[in-house]
């Protein structure tokens, strides 16, 4: 069918504004905006605390943040494209554009690949190639290692795959300094060890979804009790780890006190989950885990002022 509209073909009509708006919403949903917001915030925090941030041109800061956002969105879009089959059978994801048939899969993956290439190339040319290389690796890790390989094969999918989501502050740090240092590795580790208890809390109350989709989440394979114990272990590891920025001297005591309180309460929520047979504590822990990461990095930024 020709793309050119003629008066002789009444079946072809201009898209209505409502349809155009719906299309924009579908493409926006494809980028996983809630996940993107956390990526952008933690990446910007990595920039903020990096030495030399105050000397960086505001335009370069904006470009680096935009590249982080676009790269994260592109990786999320690849994830939605590849997982459209399991998204169809999971209640919490069945309303996404691809499972609902509102978007062509080829269109979705093309959109994702273009955005991914654009974000990496722009980061490299405008900012530096260290940050661009980390961004490219993070996108490939999430899209291929986690989405296409780990997620459907091992209950350690979140543990190993969580590395992809831990890169943003390291990328932000590299965008300012052009290097990867021990400080940026600590910021990486904070998110890496936060990821398993965060996602396992979700999987506790979304367990039936994962069973229907045949995804070997820890809750499905090992059971709720063992998952809850591992969640507690990770929060206990995270508590002293969160204090490292103060102990290493690139954050002050204000951050250290905030980290101790926030991480201590994270441990408490994990203990509550372990002791509670209902799903209420798991939901509360999941909600707190999101707040925890935002608050931890916000404390780091405030301390650096």
Automatic annotation (TrEMBL):
Membrane-protein topology: Multi-pass membrane protein
EC number(s) recorded for this UniProt protein: 2.5.1.141
Alphabetic keyword roster: Cell inner membrane, Cell membrane, Heme biosynthesis, Membrane, Transferase, Transmembrane, Transmembrane helix
Principal subcellular localization: membrane
GO CC annotation terms, alphabetical: plasma membrane
Enzyme class: transferase
GO biological-process terms attached to the record: heme O biosynthetic process
A GO molecular-function descriptor: protoheme IX farnesyltransferase activity
Catalysed conversion reaction: heme b + (2E,6E)-farnesyl diphosphate + H2O = Fe(II)-heme o + diphosphate
Family, per entry: Belongs to the UbiA prenyltransferase family. Protoheme IX farnesyltransferase subfamily.
HAMAP family reported in the protein's UniProt record: CyoE_CtaB
Something else known: Carbon 2 of the heme B porphyrin ring is defined according to the Fischer nomenclature.
NCBIfam families given in the database record: cyoE_ctaB (TIGR01473), PRK04375.1-2 (NF003349)
Biological function: Converts heme B (protoheme IX) to heme O by substitution of the vinyl group on carbon 2 of heme B porphyrin ring with a hydroxyethyl farnesyl side group.
Protein name: Protoheme IX farnesyltransferase
Organism in which the protein naturally occurs: Micavibrio aeruginosavorus (strain ARL-13)
